[in-house]
Write a structure and sequence with these properties.
The chain is built from nine helices and 26 strands. It has 436 residues and is of the alpha/beta class. The protein folds into two domains: 221 residues, 3-Layer(aba) Sandwich (Rossmann fold); 141 residues, Chitobiase/beta-hexosaminidase domain 2-like (Chitobiase, domain 2), CATH 3.30.379.10. It has an eight-stranded mixed β-sheet with strand order 3-2-4-5-16-15-13-10, sandwiched between helices. Helix 2 packs across helix 6, helix 3 runs parallel beside helix 4 and helix 7 runs parallel beside helix 9.
């Protein structure tokens, strides 16, 4: 029903009444007061709106051998192309890149993830953990800590635009990825979240850097800062003054934490000195001095190993071990004498212990009617097998396998094939196993 206004003054009052009605209605129906966020303003004359700048970069990297394990078993939130440049540069340095869980693992149970991680870290020299959506279990985190203690290198990658469980594995190293992103309204590359970074610590990671640009970077608390922000850069969540650090190190320099994933992808990986920084990260991942223990068998051997048998009657045991090593992609050759420059497995009986005397002496092991080691009580030699790993010669590893009989030696080799020998390890390099 239309309302007819006969009083001329009503035509003047109607718009005013309508406005008042709408205001009152909005106050009644609203959910509450609206407090807009504070607006950050900078004087126009101070704004520096940069343009994208591509910097040429080329390299001839030093070739090394090793394995980078990349975690994809925790529903990790990244696409293949986002890491392509980093992994390509790692490969260019001679490293093999292995995906923990395979190319497309999907959901994997916690028990399987633990075994996959344990197996991968036995042969890996470095590890990359990127935005895991599934939290690391305590046992998994402990494996990563042990890996770092052995000299392994780890890179932890987070991103403030993608929630993850990265802090669960970062916390034991005193690292915490903070919520919120870094921004600079005074100077940026087209967008205030595209921040320039020029404050570099004296570290191999910053060699050759003048200026890098991160796209939606976060901040990391604790750790040793590697790259920090300037006084005009702020955090959207943390109310404190600069500097903030999106790149830090921890774990005696073996753990690198990066709170930005976006700079790694194309074409942003070519801006300013980003390409050089990615190359430096690749050097970090491929220059560690990883140490191994006997539990890492057979992965402490590189591409090839000699199997030296002390008597012809042990050829069957040597052949069985060769087949296993070959299946593990380690080229094994049976020989009758030792090459002091090659990785070696020495197979013999206790009667042949003199052939391994230099390694036994260095390990503090004595072989007679009893087996005497610095990490076990005296053990009767009858029905036993002995394993000693020697790494005293730089760059060379020797695995000594001795037993009281051919039967015990066959069982010792079988325990290596199944992994059961790890249950008899005492310390990092010695095991005495009983077979009867």
């Amino acid at each position: 029903m239309w309302l007819r206004l006969s009083n001329p003054r009503a035509w003047l009052l109607a718009p005013i009444a309508t406005v008042v009605f709408l205001v009152i209605a909005s106050l009644i129906s609203g959910d509450g007061d609206y407090d807009p966020p504070p607006t950050v303003r900078a004087p126009v004359e101070d704004l520096v709106l940069d343009t994208i700048r591509v910097t040429g970069f080329s390299e001839s990297p030093t070739q090394r051998s090793g394995v980078l394990a990349v975690d994809v078993a925790h529903l990790n939130d990244f696409a293949e192309d986002e890491l392509a440049t980093l992994l390509t540069r790692v490969s260019d340095r001679g490293y093999t890149v292995e995906l923990i869980g395979g190319a497309d693992p999907g959901f994997i149970s916690s028990g399987t993830r633990l075994e996959l991680l344990r197996d991968a870290l036995r042969r890996a020299d470095s590890l990359a953990i990127v935005l895991p959506l599934l939290a690391y279990e305590d046992e998994e985190t402990h494996l990563v800590e042990q890996f770092v203690e052995k000299g392994g290198r780890v890179v932890l990658l987070g991103d403030p635009t993608r929630p993850s469980e990265i802090n669960g594995v970062a916390e034991p190293f005193g690292i915490a990825f903070q919520e919120g992103y870094l921004y600079n309204v005074r100077e940026h590359d087209l967008n205030y979240r595209n921040i320039f970074l020029r404050d570099f610590s004296d570290d191999p990671l910053t060699d050759g850097l003048q200026e890098v640009v991160f796209y939606t970077a976060g901040t990391i608390s604790s750790g040793v800062p590697v790259i920090s922000t300037d006084s005009n850069t702020y955090s959207s969540m943390v109310e404190r003054t600069s500097p903030f650090s999106p790149v830090v190190k921890a774990g005696d320099g073996r753990v690198l934490a990066l709170a930005d994933l976006t700079f790694l992808g194309s074409p942003r990986n070519t801006m300013l000195d980003n390409a050089r920084f990615i190359a430096n990260v690749s050097d970090f991942l491929t220059t560690g001095e990883r140490t191994f223990t006997a539990a890492d068998f057979p992965d402490f051997f590189a591409d090839s190993v000699d199997i030296v048998v002390t008597r012809s009657s042990l050829l069957d045991a040597g052949t069985s071990l060769k087949i296993f090593l070959d299946s593990s992609e380690i080229d094994a050759t049976i020989r009758g004498s030792e090459d002091l420059l090659a990785d070696t497995v020495l197979l013999g009986l206790y009667e042949d212990a003199s052939a391994a005397s230099r390694y036994l002496i260095r390990a503090g092991v004595q072989v007679a009617d009893v087996i005497r080691t610095p990490v076990t009580p005296d053990i009767s030699a009858a029905g036993t097998g002995l394993l000693v790993l020697d790494q005293s010669d730089r760059g060379r590893r020797v695995l000594v396998l001795l037993a009281d009989s051919e039967f015990s030696l066959d069982n010792l080799v079988f325990s290596l094939q199944t992994g059961d020998f790890r249950g008899g390890l005492s310390g990092d390099a010695i095991a005495v196993l009983r077979f009867q």
